[in-house]
Amino acid sequence: MPGEFELIRRYFDCAGLNQHSPSVVLGIGDDCAILDLPAEQRLCFSMDSLVAGVHFPAAADPALIARRALAVNLSDLAAMGASPLCFTLGLTLPEASDEWLQAFSAGLAAEAAAHGVSLVGGDTTLGPLSITLQVQGLLPRGGALRRDGAREGELVIVSGTLGDAAAALDLLEQPAAALTPNRQQLLERYYRPQPRLELGQALLKIGAGCAIDISDGLLADLGHILERSCVGARIDLGALPLSAALRAECPERALERALNGGDDYELCFTLAEPLWQQHRESLCAWVACTPIGRIGRAPGLTDAQGAPLVASGYQHFRGE
Questions:
Q1: Does the annotation flag 170 for ligand binding?
Q2: NCBIfam families, per this entry (predicted)?
Q3: Is residue 215 marked as binding?
Q4: 291 and 169, same structural domain?
Q5: 134 shares a domain with 110
Q6: 55 labeled binding residue
Q7: Residue 84: is its pLDDT beyond 60?
Q8: Is residue 61 marked as binding?
Q9: Residue 147 is assigned to a ligand binding site
Q10: Residue 317 lies in a domain
Q11: Which member of 30, 83, 151, 272 has the greatest number of CB atoms within 10 A?
Q12: Is there a binding annotation on residue 314?
């Protein structure tokens, strides 16, 4: 069994993970990483912890675990309109299994290469399986997509389709379920979320002021925007983008999964209607985007008929 420093050298200080960008002066191998930020750029960063049995099945393919862990963190950068720069990794392991670490490292390297980010440091320790990543990104000075930027009259728009990853969690609780093409598609959405980095950066460039990534469910995450922006919204439930796989696998619960399921890591953003009409084609070139409602002055979140919509997404420490 390798020691901590040999483990780091063998699996993480390697090609595919330490391909430093010009902004990384010093990466893995010292007490700290050193970054040299470009002129007129600001550093933004976010951190998430993923715990086996809470955020992913402990027995899942370690390559998929790694890819998902990095992707969901990069999604936070996408929600700000940031360009990814680098990341650090805190890895707690119950044992140093060569087979597990090789697969995890390969998956992490593949996801890092797909988005042009480098691993610049971190820590490993012994304990229950958990993964903590901090991602760093760059924003132009004075610009960011923020939760407090929604304005009355703006459209509420979402990227991609909603509810797929939540439906996949239902499948993971039924390990004996036959793996049909629809179910495979749902599982792919859970294990391989696509951080909408290009969309976030495009929104920032055209003057959008508000976005969030959907991790805890549309209603919960849109609720954060409404609270921070001191506004309300009406949502057309019939406009929610639902995949054919979701409709086929859980037709009676598809809407609930889309509203409260979470884990899709799509973007929910607001945009003035003239901007949407002007840039719709270019934005949808990155991923399909769908207007689902409109920001209003009165607080609260309702459907198109004015009936209240209440979030019921997962919350840590409350077990719901």
A1: no
A2: thiL
A3: yes
A4: yes
A5: yes
A6: yes
A7: yes
A8: no
A9: yes
A10: no
A11: 83
A12: yes
Domain span holding position 36: 4-140
316 is in an annotated binding site: no
Number of domains within the chain: 2
46 is in an annotated binding site: yes
Same-domain pairing of 296 and 161: yes
Lowest mean pLDDT among 6-10, 104-108, 186-190: 6-10
Q: Is 48 annotated as a binding residue?
A: yes
Is 216 annotated to bind ligand? yes
Q: Please identify, among 116, 140, 164, the residue that sits at the C-terminal boundary of a domain.
A: 140
Query: 121 and 14 share a domain?
Result: yes
| 36 among annotated binding-site residues | no
Mean residue pLDDT across the chain: 91
Task: Report if residue 276 sits inside a domain.
Answer: yes
Is 265 annotated to bind a ligand? Reply is no
